[in-house]
From TrEMBL:
Compartmental location: Cell membrane
Any one GO biological process: cell division
Entry protein name: Cell division ATP-binding protein FtsE
Biased composition (Pro residues): 346-358
């Protein structure tokens, strides 16, 4: 579904790559956390998936498409399969909840009838059924993020990219957002979330990819935020230290091993809507956890590299989370906020402003 082959990204005017020889694969239905200190390359990774940036080296495949060869005119259509959520919500302040979600559908020319059906459905799914007439300033932060998520998923994207979606929320509200993302994932959407929130990562027990200075140093199935960092290049399965083969081999365990996420407090128990709200400690980005002199890991890796696979993870086939009763019966089609940035006739700031998380102001190459 997403494959990075020896991808490096060097922004112009910089001396160090934001991403350095990244080699990984994310399968349909996975829920992946991207962790790492500020500046380690998480947002750059997401921007590359979105084709907001081009790799300086290497190839990126997303949904069967090699992005280097994707013509610009096809990018908006490509992005219809991707939803994006940001830390700062990026709602249109002058539009109601309904209109914020409807706007992206209008941009791609969906009919009024379609919009009238799809928007209430998705708002109900994110728990905002009764608030569609409100304006963003009349909502809590968590509710605003739910609107942003509704906007991102109204077209049932194959992939949802979330850049610090809980970064502005308190722990209890974050738990609600994570529960929602879990449900979206259980309904078939691949979720990739960049985060500094150790409590969430530790409790969700999903795949964790850790970046340090643009390099993948850990790729752990059902991992935690603080697990010892393992330099992938040093974990040699083929006899060739740091070789292309060993990197390609250093992929997460096969889906056949079925990573059934352990019961997570962010996921409602089967047959119920109740979610235990954990009070997870917030942390800032950690310092690299390599042994200071050698750069070698300080403990045995807890993951097992395996060859590439093409089949979806078992967890996707058998969702750990029962879809909520409020989930829409039919999949509405629409457009992601990303695409709206490309195609919208006006330039509403919330959709067009350079995204701070993915495109920090003043840093565009
Ligand atoms: N447009 C840009 N132009 C130049 N350098 C950039 C640009 N975007 C990012 N960088 C640099 O690339 C590196 C990775 O940045 P990136 O935003 O991907 O990190 P991050 O892990 O997402 O950080 P954070 O957790 O703070 O959001 C940093 O050194 C950053 O300064």
């Amino acid at each position: 579904m997403i494959r990075f082959d020896q991808v490096s990204k060097m922004y112009s005017g910089t001396s160090r790559p934001a991403l350095n020889s990244v080699d990984l694969e994310i399968l349909k239905g996975e829920f992946v956390f991207l962790v790492g200190a500020s500046g380690s390359g998480k947002s750059s990774f997401l921007r590359l998936v979105l084709k907001e940036e081009r790799p300086s080296k290497g190839k990126i495949h997303v949904l069967g498409q090699e992005l280097n060869t994707l013509p610009s005119r096809k990018v908006p259509y490509f992005r219809r399969s991707l939803g994006v959520v940001f830390q700062d919500f990026r709602l249109l302040p002058q539009k109601t909840v309904f209109d914020n979600v409807a706007f992206t559908l209008q941009v791609i020319g969906k009919s009024k009838g379609f919009i009238q059906e799809a928007v209430p459905d998705v708002l109900k799914m994110v728990g905002l059924g009764g608030k569609q007439g409100r304006y963003p300033h009349e909502l809590s932060g968590g509710e605003q993020q739910r609107v942003a998520i509704a906007r991102a998923i109204v077209n049932k994207p194959a992939i949802l990219l979330a850049d610090e979606p809980t970064g502005n929320l308190d722990p209890a509200t974050s738990a609600g957002i994570m529960s929602l993302l879990s449900t979206i994932n259980a309904n078939g959407t691949t979720v990739i979330m960049a985060t500094h929130d150790s409590g969430i990562v530790d409790q969700m027990k999903r795949r964790v990819i850790e970046l340090i200075s643009g390099q993948v140093v850990r790729d752990e199935r059902a991992g935690g935020y603080q697990t010892q960092a393992i330099p992938v290049q040093k974990f040699d399965m083929t006899g060739g230290l740091g070789s292309r083969t060993s990197l390609a081999t250093a992929r997460p365990p096969a889906p056949e091993t079925k990573v059934e996420p352990a019961a997570s407090p962010f996921e409602p128990a089967a047959g119920t809507d109740s979610i235990e709200i954990p009070v997870a400690p917030r942390t800032v980005a950690p310092a690299p956890r390599l042994a200071p002199e050698s750069g070698h890991p300080t403990s045995t890796p807890s993951w097992v590299p395996v060859p590439k696979r093409d089949t979806p993870p078992a967890a996707a086939a058998a969702p750990a989370v029962a879809p909520t009763p409020a989930a829409p019966a039919a999949a509405p089609a629409s457009v992601t906020p990303v695409e709206a940035r490309d195609e919208q006739p006006e330039t509403p700031p919330a959709l067009n402003a350079p995204p701070p998380a993915l495109n920090e102001p003043g840093r565009r190459a």
